[in-house]
Specification:
Porin, mainly beta
């Protein structure tokens, strides 16, 4: 260290004389290159994107019971509240998937990614003809009444008698997966333009089921908006079951669960429903592939990936796919 300090002091003294200063700068060496293996700050960062195609093995959509009405019974649920659907047995399907992310190369052997993957799962669709109440007329039963020994017939409002029209009920549900993963990759050496690698990672999957249930009248093609009401009566749906005192006699429509109370709704109603439910699960992924250098900054990426979208269920919900993408270095 003392020798280096002395040499620096001598050089500074020589540079103070015109002769030596001119000779020193004329013979200055060119700038030194950065040592091998070192890069500029930020050049280890990269962005990536890929598209793939493969087999999804995932639970199907199971509609809630009662979405389609029976005669005299409106669909379940509040029209302003999304209807939940459940998940049934697994079904296999071929589907594309897409991914975006960014990563950092720690060294020539190891890099890490933060990725977002999108894929579509098995959905559900069906069409069913149902009877929609078109006109609701308030009706009364004409009962016999005796007051002070005098018999008379009294009209007692009992509910609404409906005229029905046929409607087409259309249920359509899509299933989507948005998967956020942190991946680690080991590059297995450079072979000319080719760099094989293996990788693994974990994250969270958001499985969303969304769709709609709509009803259209067959006679008009218009969206069914509920029955037109005429008169006022208790909120029972009734049907004619006979005659009494020369007048039609009405009885409340039978119910599967009599303890549930009178039938609702009476009057204009929106039978259409939205469907939206999301389930969050832990996800995992394995990958093996090869990077192919196509320019100084871009690498073509060909990989086989397998993801489990629900680690708690083992390998229950899986996506196996072949993906092709590009990694671009942010030099």
């Amino acid at each position: 260290m003392r020798c280096l300090g002395l040499a620096g002091l001598v050089g500074a003294c020589l540079a103070t004389t015109p002769l030596f200063a001119a000779d020193l700068f004329d013979s200055a060496p060119p700038p030194m290159d950065m040592p091998a293996g070192q890069t500029e700050l930020g050049s280890n960062w990269y962005i990536r994107g890929d598209v793939g195609y493969g087999q999804m093995d995932q639970a199907t959509v199971v509609p809630s019971a009662g979405l389609f009405p029976t005669v005299g019974n409106a669909p379940i649920g509040d029209a302003n509240t999304p209807v939940e659907v459940t998940r049934g047995n697994n079904q296999k399907m071929m589907t594309p998937n897409f991914g975006l992310g960014f990563g950092y190369r720690i060294n020539d052997w190891f890099r890490v990614d933060a990725d977002w993957q999108f894929s579509k799962g098995p959905g559900f669709g069906t069409r069913q003809t149902v009877f929609c109440p078109e006109q609701a007329n308030a009706v009364s039963n004409y009962n016999t009444q005796t007051v002070n020994g005098v018999q008379s017939i009294v009209a007692v409002p009992v509910g609404y008698a409906y005229d029905f029209t046929q409607c087409d009920g259309n249920l359509h549900v899509n299933q989507y997966n948005n998967t956020a993963l942190v991946m680690g990759y080991v590059d297995l050496g450079h072979w000319g333009l080719f760099t094989p690698y293996i990788g693994a990672g974990a994250g969270i999957n958001a499985n969303t089921m969304s769709g709609s249930l709509t009803f259209n009248q067959q006679d008009t093609g218009q969206t069914y908006a509920g029955a037109t009401v005429s008169g006022s009566a208790p909120g029972n749906w009734v049907i004619q079951t006979g005659m009494q005192n020369g007048q039609p006699f009405y009885s409340t429509l039978p119910q599967a669960n009599p303890s549930s109370g009178t039938r609702q709704p009476v009057g204009p109603a929106n039978w259409n429903r939205t469907i939206n439910t999301t389930k969050y699960t832990f996800a995992g992924a394995l990958a093996a592939g090869v990077g192919i250098k196509i320019s100084q900054s871009a690498t073509l990426d060909l990989a086989y990936k397998i993801m489990t979208l629900d680690l708690s269920g083992g390998m229950k919900n899986t996506l196996q796919s072949v993906n092709l993408g590009v990694r671009y270095d942010l030099n």
